Amino acid sequence: MRNELQKNRKLIAASVLALVAVVLAGRFLTVFVALSPSVRMREPLQRGGTESNVTKSTDLNAFDPTLKPDSLRFSEGTRYKGAGRNIFRVQTPASRTGSATGPSSSTSVQLVKLSLPTVGLRFFGFATVPGDRERIFLSSDADVFIGSEGEIVNRRYRILQITPTSVELEDLITGVRQKILLD
């Protein structure tokens, strides 16, 4: 009796494992088929048909490796017509001269106004504590920086001089000095 009960349990366990194996194998095959590159089928153009009707695929996101000669001919005929300017070098436009004596009257010279980079900080207050150095409060967007003379804030600006109405900062990268007024 005990032998028969063990045989029945083994038979049930084997059938459950076989069922799980069949389900997993079926799932693996469906994933494998879905990931494999799809085959595109070409049908002749029907009256009123479009290219989207002609190309059918089992997978809409499939990659079509066929060459399209019309697109290639179009791209081969395109020529780059640049101005001969190198975008990686800073160049000033050369003034054109009409004669050896000087510029012609039709040539206009454009003056470029160079603006110094501005410090992206706002001076909004200061604090003085007896027996301690005067501290200022600077902000850049949501960041607030607290510093005193000689310190570096925002890993870039050195505080040179603090007055009751302004602060003078030096940009350590560009070397530009700028005075910011109290807001």
Keywords:
single chain; 183 residues; alpha+beta; 4-stranded antiparallel β-sheet
Describe this structure in words.
The chain is α+β, with helices and mostly antiparallel strands and 183 residues long. Among the domains are: 1-34; 122-181, no CATH class. 25% of the residues lie in helices and 22% in strands. It is built from 3 helices and 9 strands. The chain has helices spanning 2-35, 51-54, 69-76; strands at 41-42, 55-56, 122-127, 135-140, 143-147, 152-153, 157-162, 166-171, 177-181. Strands 6-7-8-9 form a 4-stranded antiparallel sheet, with no helix packed on it. The chain has a 3-stranded antiparallel sheet with strand order 3-4-5, with no helix packed on it. Strands 1-2 form a two-stranded antiparallel sheet. Strand 4 and strand 5 form a beta hairpin. It is flat and about 100 Å long.
In short:
This protein is an alpha+beta fold and 183 residues long.
Quick one: biggest sheet? 4 strands, antiparallel
**SSE ordering:** HEHEHEEEEEEE
- Structural category: alpha+beta
The number of helices is 3
Q: Would you identify the regions where 5 or more consecutive residues have pLDDT less than 50?
A: 39-50
Overall spatial form: flat
Going across the biggest sheet, name each strand in turn. Answer: 6-7-8-9
Percent of residues in helices: 25-40%
Question: How many β strands by DSSP?
Answer: 9
Percent in strands: 15-25%
In terms of quaternary structure, the protein is: single chain
State the distance separating the first and last CA atoms. 96 Å
| Radius of gyration, CA atoms, in whole angstroms | 38 Å
Integer average pLDDT:
77
